Amino acid sequence: AQRVTQPEKLLSVFKGAPVELKCNYSYSGSPELFWYVQYSRQRLQLLLRHISRESIKGFTADLNKGETSFHLKKPFAQEEDSAMYYCALHAGGTSYGKLTFGQGTILTVHP
Amino acid sequence: DAGVTQSPTHLIKTRGQQVTLRCSPKSGHDTVSWYQQALGQGPQFIFQYYEEEERQRGNFPDRFSGHQFPNYSSELNVNALLLGDSALYLCASSLGVLGQPQHFGDGTRLSIL
User: Fold this and answer.
1) Are B105 and A43 inside 8 Å of each other by CB?
2) Interval A28-87: pLDDT, tens
3) Residue A59 φ/ψ, nearest 5 degrees
4) CA distances (Å), origin A66, targets A21, A70, B9, B15
5) Confidence class of residue B99 from pLDDT cuts 50, 70 and 90?
């Protein structure tokens, strides 16, 4: 069975500071990892996926298979980054489209 | 494109009742997945429908059932409601049975009294 762990329920930083949201997973195969974000009063939306290897809104995430991690990073946080962030795993194959989510991290960026 | 649409937005039921939630996928998508999100938790996978069949099911009892129609829209039915069924129910659509990423709707907030 797959599991996704986001160890920090709450994370507070000041504007301009670096931010790292942690995500660890357990899965024996080759997963696809995602970060989803939910801004205030908005729906859950995709932020980035590891296979795209792109930077969205200044955020990056690298899949580390050795450490089974997919941490989300941004060098200079902005107030508009304040939101709930979910890490999610797709096992593929017989899991069809099932996504396994972590519990989420609430990021607050203070001015 | 309105994206994924869900109805109703909010619903209040009492224990033992039955409820039906509805979802229309994003234009061009053919697969619908349902998730339950309890307060303070991440979404939990209920099941996925593709080609009008349930393809994968999460750890939910048979009280939870669904349907997909030829136009790809879907319904989630929950029978014999329990207090613990109170949650936000999210619908997500994608293209193809393994298709990622999934696009989410705003959800239906179900409250059980």
Assistant:
1) yes
2) 888 999 999 999 999 999 999 988 878 889 999 989 999 999 999 999 999 999 999 999
3) -90, 145
4) 18, 11, 43, 47
5) confident
pLDDT score of A59: 95
CB B45 within 8 A of CB B35: yes
- A-B contacts (CB, under 8 Å): 69
Q: How many residues does chain B have?
A: 113
d(CA B107, CA B24): 12
For residue A57, what are the CA distances in angstroms to A21, A72, A80, B100, B101? 15, 12, 10, 20, 18
For residue A97, pLDDT beyond 90: no
Task: Say if CB A27 and CB A37 are below 8 A apart.
Answer: no
Q: How far apart are CA B2 and CA A35, in angstroms?
A: 22
**Which residue reads 């949650």 in tokens?**
B87
Does B38 lie at the interface with A, CB-CB under 8 angstroms? Answer: no
Cβ of A99 and B102 within 8 Å? Answer: yes
